[in-house]
Amino acid sequence: MPKRLVSVESRSLQLHDQLCAYQLKRSSIRRTLALLVGRQGLVVHAPWRLSLHEIEHFIHAKSAWIWAKLQHYATQNNSSWVWHNDMRLLYLGREINLNVSNHSRQISLVGDVLHVPSLAPEKIIAWYKTEAVRIFQMRLAEFSPRLDKLPSALSLTNARTRWGSCTSAGVIRLHWRLIQATMAEIDYVLVHELAHMKHMNHGVRFWQRVETLLPDYQQPHRQLRQVGHRYHDMCTELS
Question: Is beta strand 171-175 parallel, antiparallel or unpaired with respect to 88-91?
Fold first, then answer.
């Protein structure tokens, strides 16, 4: 029985003057080309024998259908989220521009421009998560001298309804999308969970503890409630 060959790679190509990210899945047992557009974006299923030129020629031929489907899902999600070059992203409360360049060897943020070697959404999300770990750890170090006890662990979460959580064992988890928020908002969520290490409720003593750690917590608390949906909308189907 012949060995089945399978490969999966992230690629992008120019469609209607914009870069369109897609996932290419090749299989030696597949006989036909198929395009699937869903909440994860465009996925192309192709026979192993077809060249990249033939595959992308087929994609171009179906470009109108592809964009219509992408916009359909973006509308369903109350978002205009379609990955493309020069799109605007959020990072630490400010807008940055995505720049796709073959001259970039790795993802790097220079000023307000995020340089990426290719339009691979999962790699951009991985960069966000790496930055989230770095920033969250840095902010924890800032509050550490004021704590009676440090968290047993600080990790990332992708919970649908919570920005953070704290277990009875002192494990704090913060949503990775918070890296899009302002530093004040990040501090508020972190302090909120640090306060839960002493008070596993939202009683008077809990809020007193929050105020002790972050005296001006009310403003970022209010701001996060008002604009926090922006951070959830961004990249919501790529986590």
Answer: unpaired
| Rounded Cα–Cα distance for residues 23 and 204 (Å) | 50
List the beta strands (DSSP E) in 79-125. Answer: 88-91, 94-100, 108-110, 113-116
Residue 64 makes CB contacts below 8 A (sequence gap 6+) with none
Predicted confidence (pLDDT) at residue 16 exceeds the cutoff of 80: no
DSSP 3-state assignment of 73? helix
Helix axes of 204-213 and 183-196: crossing angle, nearest 10 degrees: 130
How many angstroms separate the most distant Cα atoms in the chain? 69
Q: Distance between CA 75 and CA 147 in Å, rounded?
A: 45
Tell me if the pTM is above 0.85. no
pLDDT tens figures, 76-105: 654 545 677 888 899 999 999 999 887 778
pLDDT at residue 233, as a whole number = 53
What tokens does 166 get?
A: 């704290």
**Pairwise CA distance, residues 66 & 61, whole Å:** 10
- Every domain of the chain and the residues it spans: 6-75, 120-232
Class in CATH terms, 120-232 = alpha beta
Q: In 3D, which of 69, 54, 93 has the Cα closest to residue 20?
A: 69
Are 181 and 94 a contacting pair, CB within 8 Å? no
